[in-house]
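WARN retry 2 of 3 for item q-0093 after timeout on previous attempt; input resubmitted unchanged.
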Amino acid sequence: MPRLSAPRILGALIGFTGLSVVAGVLVAILFVPSVAVAGEGVVTGVKTFNSLPSYLQITQPAQASSIYAKKGGQEVKLASFYVENRTDVTLENMSKYVQESTIDTEDPRYYKEGAIDVQGTIRGVLATTLGHDVQGGSSITQQYVKNVLVQRCAQEYDQTTQKGLEQAQNCYAQVTATTPARKLREMRYAIGVEKRYSKHDILQSYLNLVGFGGTVYGVQAASEYYFDNSAKDLPVYQAATLTAILNNPQNLRIDQPGNKANGAANGYALTKARRDYVLGRMYKVGDITKAELDAAVAKPIIPHITAQSNGCATAGAYDAGYFCNYVEAALKADTALGATQADRNEKLTEGGLSVYTTLNLDLQAKSQAALSAYMPTSVPGLNLGASNVAVEPGTGRIVTMVQNTKFNETSTAQTGSTSVNYNTDHAYGGSQGFQTGSSFKVFTLAAWLEAGHTLNESVSTTQHSLPISEFHNSCYGIGGPPWNVSNADPAPASMTVEAATAESVNTAFADMGTKLDLCDISKAAQGMGIHPADTTANPWVETPSMILGVNYISPLSMATAYAGIANNGVWCTPVAVDKVLDQHGNVVKTTPTKCTQGMSADIAHGIAYATKGVLQAGGTGAAANPGDGVPILAKTGTTDAAVQNWLVTSTTKIAQATWVGNISGQAGFYHTYVNGVYGYSLKFYMDKQIIRDLNAAYPGATAFPDPPASEIGVVQKPATDPNSTDKNGTSNGKTDGGTSNGNSNGNGNSNGNGGKNGTPTH
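OK item q-0093 returned
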């Protein structure tokens, strides 16, 4: 027998002494609960010992939230949001092999012992004492406690700040420190947990809590991620693989095929060795037979990595990335979900919410196809775009939202993909908006009728340079040079307001403006929810040129306003969410749509009466008429040189707004061809199909009520103009007046001169 050296004898004695001390503490904890270790000291009293910090109570940990939309009547997941990718499931919804492999490997005496694995702890203490390193010996309950403490460090501090990051790191260092005090604290907490909860609940919580590498947490998310399977359906060899990963999640994860030590080239050798050990443990305790063991060991590890995207990228598969991004922004802005931004972010990324949206994926696909058929994702040498959004009158529900580019959360580049949503306000991930051209004229029409004028009243079309002194604004003083106005097509010397609306004659509306208070026009628009898409970049304009649409507005705002006109003057704030449920299936309160009587029903009926001719023969939008006979109000809009182009329509059932134009630059669509199609006509080709599909999906649209006879007025014969090519207002395919030279850049930069005193053409 070899002689022991003095240092080895001394070390053994110290080890024995240390082991005796720890054993004594264990005895105190296990059999004398009036004495318990708390932190670095000793606390006395049964009450103190039995108490358990609130954060150690079994609650559902941070879970992923998911956004859904309907397709074929079924809810389809568009995207998930999480800090930790996790979905809680009950123990009954986990394969028995997951439970058995975990217990057999991590804590074979789990159901027979108390909160502490005494044999394992003594073995660990012995190894620690003699080897000067803290060893394992943790029961599943102790491991649960440790994972909760680690979670608490991650959740309690704001790691977006330097101070919060340092606090989280210090916290993590304390709860994972290789010290006897930390182990003893875990033991005390483990005993407290088992006094309050059953073994069933602790195992379930543990398997839902633990990390499996990266941001994958819990057995359900791990099953989906690594094997495209559910935890309930895992066969023994896959269940054993997940249990193997638990031993060292970062080194044994199987989603890094290029890893030289543990990758596809060597069959994930490290993980397989651990998996086979797990299978061996299952066989040893009798949970699987020898035949099952041999069959499972023979199985190679073949991951089926199914990326669980964190964010809206996966919604792109349904052409719904921009809508998804709008939903995310809307939820984060909804104070009903939390008082602070941090509260709302946490609710979305950790609350396990199921968000059921208003999006109709079947219609979405049709609208996307109609738009993409004419506007490609990019046009060489130009920065052009197109978008369409549809909204339900009376509910504010957004049912479609499409654009020509591909959604890319990290890009604002205009090369076929971007994160910028052309349909929405800047605060909701959108652009700075686009000048609306003559589609804004409905608000001048509203002010006209409100002031007591009629649709059959004749107005002059001959004045093309109007001194500012002819205009009045009771809200703001105005001044400056004359406003120069032109028409895209010849017009008679005078015409009725109804005819001027159908043919969108700029000089007629300019003349109407001289008879009105510009402030009233502004209020008519704002009363229907119209506002700048980005007030910082492009504040609201109330100069005379406002009449012809120089303000920068989002398509969603225009669709919402037109839906309100069709809904008897009642507009409803747009909503993208039908309901939100928490992880227990309980309804989570969100801010509902708010409906407002923005104009009287009579005024709304007057506008509908005047704009019903826009899609009919002689109207500026006749080319977009779907030919289905559904009553529809509409207005086109085109800025100078057709740099921006609009068509906004609504039936009593569904409204839509289409924009086609420059994201940046000044390419004139009168002289631009896209895919061989005359650029100015793109909106008509798109909308003809889009409107037809919307009408089919929303049948039963009724005719708009006639306005009071006092709004229509007595028919007046318009004066003739020998130079006019359309004396009776029967032209077809006419263009409508544009706005100004200013132009919004979709990536958030302003370009152009703003058009505050511009001269819209149609």
